[in-house]
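To whoever picks this up:

The parser on our side crashed when reading a file containing two proteins. I've narrowed it down to the boundary between the first structure block and the second sequence. Both blocks are reproduced below exactly, byte for byte. First block:
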Amino acid sequence: MKDKFDRTIDYLRISLTDRCNLRCIFCMPDEGVPLLPHEEILRIEEICAIVREMALMGLKKVRLTGGEPLLRKGILDLVQCLRDIPQLEEVTITTNGTMLKDLAEPLKLAGIRRINIGLPSLDPINYKLITRRGDINKALEGLQKAMEVGFHPIKINTVLLKGWNEDPIPFLKLITEFPVEVRFIEYMPLGRLLGKDSFLSAHEFLEKISSLTEFKETSSTPGNGPAQKSFQLPNAKGSFSLIAAFSDHFCPKCNRLRLTSDGEILPCLFSHQGVNLKSALRPYLDSSALRLKILEALSLKPKEKDLSFSTQRFMAQIGG
């Protein structure tokens, strides 16, 4: 698929649910979000129908997100359905890891090969404060299980927050001991949960690491994500990367669309408008109408993100 700026769009992020078992301070308010009615949520077979149509149009990669995607009933059936689409090269998942101890092996058997785990802190107290209710031991058990069953690569997503996780040492120790990639990601101020004083730029954080240790820049591991810089420490089993999701301008290389759990295609995380697909799926699938709606959403993809954009939706409702 090509947008009107001649960018190849071959990657779709799918939010499976607006529900989550955590309440991370950068993602969702403490009281949670108003949950969508069950009938508004896309069914598993509807998600598969959308991806099949988009795969015929050039889609190559899908990432399953949430909320917390492992809370979605039928997720293993969905993975198997997606893996049966011949044009689709890769199905990956982003999770907070707290349910991976039990689900890592079934996910691997269903066809997931690569996985991202959100881990905002390695300090038990800070982890609980940032997630408001999380137990870091469950997340670390999930990470351990993911390594045991053979996911590769395993990426750790750490949203940078000034005053919360500014110390890179615990994460540098993690990549010294384990073959994971820690991705330090700038906070995206959707939903205005945190003030500007919580923002920590990727450049600032790299300077902190520079004051502590030597490293060399390497080519990034294969993936679906935005432009990023990857680095290797001497004799480390893993690596780290920085994603300047807010301050950098990687829009010219953007290759993605987003599908919300209630069926709306968003051309950009900062989109003013999207296209809801449900009328092409219910009461029955209309493939021609579905394709037209997908093309409509593609036509709305902006040349670059609008940093003045304000939304009432939180990251958990969009899918990151």
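<<boundary where parser fails>>
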Amino acid sequence: MTTPTTTTTTGSDQTAFGAEDFTTGEGLRALLNRLCESGEDAWVHDPVARKLMEFAADKYAALARKHKLDTWEAATAAFDAMQYRSTREANDPWAIITHAVRITCVYEERAQGLLCSVHQARRAHVSAFHDPERFCDRDTPLADYHPAFHTTDPHDDPGEPADSEELRSGQACRSATSAAEDAMVLLGLLGWPADLARASVEHVCGALMKSGSRQAAAEALRRDRHVRALLDLPRRSWNVLLKALLGNPDPAYRATSAGRGVLLRLLVGETLDVLLRDDDLILALALAAPVGRGGE
């Protein structure tokens, strides 16, 4: 009777049949070299290769979630990096794979944001753009703050503020005092009390001289409740008066009459007759004229 023999498997035999410790750099190198020498089908049928990809998916799952990607997208990037000869010959194969996965995740996320391919997102002149936005994504309309939607006077010197140029040219036409006096007369013709018109214009002119710019003066005066209380003006009348005298601060209106305001228009040579033909200005000031002198 023949006695059955028991065969034991040694550690070297396990390595020969694919029991490499791929969690270490040297073990991963040995496994990648064996898979490379075994041909393309080795990745499909080798059980250790399957365990390697499951390990890579778990290893880079957090990195994938950070970039809003699926876990297996990071595992795919790891698989692609494992195919290169440079990865097998590197001092630390896992370091090369991790770097490749990180770069791929970054550009995959950029490609999804830019609505383009990953290949295009890797190009510097494409990735420099911001992600597209819908106009309805923001509470404030895009045209109100984005410079691409603003128009400026083509005659303005880009190296010099437009206000300074206009004010300098206006000095040859009229004096600031006469412009202020005409502004008071204009308000009086539109139903504003003479004393209130004088006090309001003088206060606006004083704030304008202190601040140095119409935009800064308008913002400071608009927030100054104490001044409005001293003048005994309703909020609506005060706001309309500021916009009429100093102009609309929006850069889109800089080259228009509404953007320049009454004071600047008088300084650059416009007369009361010209201002009285501005229907929008006249209507706004006439409707804002205080009736009861106070209240909201």
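After patching the parser it read the second block fine. Residues 1-18, 155-162, 167-174 have pLDDT under 50 and may be disordered. The chain has two domains: 20-127, 162-288.
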